[in-house]
Amino acid sequence: MITRYSEAKLPTPNGEFRVVVYRTGEPVGAGGTAIGTGPEEHVAMVLGDVRGADVLARVHSSCFTGEVLGSLRCDCRGQLDAALAKIGEVGRGVLVYLVQEGRGIGLGNKVAAYQLQDQGADTVDANLALGFDADLRSYDIAAGILADLGVTSVRLMTNNPQKIAGLERAGVSIGATEAHWVGGTSHSESYLAAKKSKLGHIH
């Protein structure tokens, strides 16, 4: 399903990680990545020896608008930065970065959902209005990456019970979870409220 394609040292403000790129090797549809063509590529940011149990981990989905363009509509960049900082503090852990833009609907559809949100829809209703489920993400690839890295159980940084259930269905052993809330803005208040009320995210 996935192939470890390349890896190298990656110095960051949180320490010298090892960045590992995985390829699915299969063409994807227009909703599959931020680009929408070619093989999917997903990334693991690894710090220390993560073989074995009780590995601090974050499974994070891509957010081009938040992480690259600096959008204040979501907390994705804050969550990414906080996870890498926490792994850096602990000195051992892995962040799996999945290219699943807009909870799996792709960048173009995500921006279309933004337009609906500007007209009063929340983040869940906007996805539904476009004909998608509220969350189309899959965690099978994340499970395969963790297994390839030798991780046998994780201490998962998340607020999302659906992510926990999806990873467990994919075969990931979750020994513990850690809340992963970061600060919001006036632009992200309704987004965060919908995640709690409609998607079951816990504080």
Fold topology:
Elements: E1 3-12, E2 15-27, E3 39-47, E4 55-61, H1 64-67, H2 76-90, E5 93-98, H3 101-104, H4 107-118, H5 123-129, H6 140-148, E6 154-157, H7 161-169, E7 174-178, H8 189-199
Parallel strand pairs: 4-5, 4-6, 6-7
Antiparallel strand pairs: 1-2, 2-3, 3-5
Helix pairs in contact: 4-5
Structure description:
The chain is an alpha/beta fold and 203 residues long. It has a single domain, classed as GTP cyclohydrolase II (Rossmann fold, 3-Layer(aba) Sandwich). The chain is 35% helix and 27% strand. It contains eight helices and seven strands. A seven-stranded mixed beta sheet has the order 1-2-3-5-4-6-7, sandwiched between helices. Helix 7 links the parallel strand 6 and strand 7. The protein starts with a strand and ends with a helix. 35% of the residues are buried.
